[in-house]
Amino acid sequence: MQHDILIIGSGFGGQCAAINLLKRGITDFRLLERRDFMGGTWCQNSYPGAAVDVQSPLYSISFEPYQWSQMFVEQAELEEYTNFVIDKYTLRERTVTNCNVEQVRWDEGDRRWVLSTSQGELRARIVINASGPLSTPVIPNFPGRDSFRGVTFHTNAWNHDVSLKGKRVAIIGSGASAAQAIPAIAPECGHLHVFQRTPHWVMPRPDRRFSKVERALLGIKPLHKALRTAIYWELETRVVGFKYSPWALQQFAQKAALRHIEKQIAAPALRAKVTPDYTIGCKRIILSNTLYPALCRDNVSLHTKGSGIAEITPTGIRTTDGQDIELDVIIYSTGYDATDGVISYPVLGKGGRALKDFWAEYPRAYLGTTMPGFPNFFVVTGPNTGIGHTSAIFVIEAQMNYIMKSLDALKQRDKALLEVTPAAEADYTGMIHREMEQTVWKSGGCNSWYQSKSGHVIAMFPGFSFTYRQLANRFKPEHHVFS
Ligand SMILES: Cc1cc2nc3c(=O)[nH]c(=O)nc-3n(C[C@H](O)[C@H](O)[C@H](O)COP(=O)(O)OP(=O)(O)OC[C@H]3O[C@@H](n4cnc5c(N)ncnc54)[C@H](O)[C@@H]3O)c2cc1C
Known about the structure:
The chain is built from 15 helices and 21 strands. The chain has 483 residues and is of the alpha/beta class.
């Protein structure tokens, strides 16, 4: 199989790339998906309680509004929306599922990329990587991890065949997925042990169901757009705190989060356990009205640093303070290979240079998308394109402007290849990390998956999302070499 363009991944990133190509009349492409189903995040993460944490009218493709049932919809509705988009744009017939990309290598003689996949070798002039920033789950190598005789799974691959009713369950991790799963499963577990390494700041979730009339109104495109725009600007104001005013973050957001703890938790010991010691926003803020009440339940125990995991035993977990906790099920909510492993397969560029070597110090890319020495290779949701305060889809759509304008520029010049210059990439990355210095992600006093092992914050864009979009919109030919 040979196509001019191959897109790796079929989540919103892959879908937006494919739709943008179709809108330009380009049909010589395929999406490659390692799973046996399409759709990415919301078709994969079906854990109880899974829901979006950005208001749905904004967490959607800008030109594909939907009649959402509530402000923050649950996973099933996002799966439905994802499939609606896939079908509307006939993407299913343009996708090869069960096709795991294992390596991507530049062939200098052929001036094409060679993709080694679980379905054999494929070639393409242009590769759009949309393999997802949070799609490869990670389970830390706890001592004795494989000795446990009960059931284990990751929240990313929830085992719905296992009933938790009356069982002794542990959930390891307390991030965004755990915060949603804990309240959903606590009532049915016999006992639920929550292992928290670092607490997150939690804010109330301003959710509400839309009435029939409101849903009908959401079906009118300009009204959907008006609501989306209002939400967008409200969320954008948070950047002022994240970047320019830790004082405002502490005075307003952090105080509101402290009031949330006081309102929902009576016991001083539990309050202390869930109160972070870093500035709010340094790690992703969790929105939940149900997490703290779940932690207050009699059948839930919260284990923190003092009684963390020493080892996993055949029958459960031995804690650092010497307790032996007997368990039937261990659920890992331990996150993703998100920072130093931005791409889920090795990439070898010009001269056989590995992307991991170019990224040896930390992942970096011009507009978070292109790297010198890797012609016609575009990374969706690449380094420093993450956004803590608004919809990831907004950024994905902004990246599409840059990618599509790059393809237009090639066509206009009747050239086959485009490559960002080393100087342009270095200038851009320099600007990103200078701007990052003043952000709460750099100075807020926490360790998070936003940072690479080198200490550089490589997940987040240090500014307003509209600034990123402006940069991505203005294609600069002088920053590229065409051949
Ligand atoms: C549980 C969860 C909740 C989230 N909630 C929010 C939220 O509320 N708001 C927000 O803005 N963002 C949220 N995100 C972030 C989310 O990743 C983005 O919003 C968005 O879905 C990313 O889309 P994507 O297409 O880039 O990645 P994904 O949706 O992850 O899709 C990537 C696809 O690539 C495939 N793939 C990966 N590697 C290969 C390979 N080697 N070969 C072939 N196929 C491959 C994967 O199987 C997957 O289908 C959440 C993420 C998770 C995991």
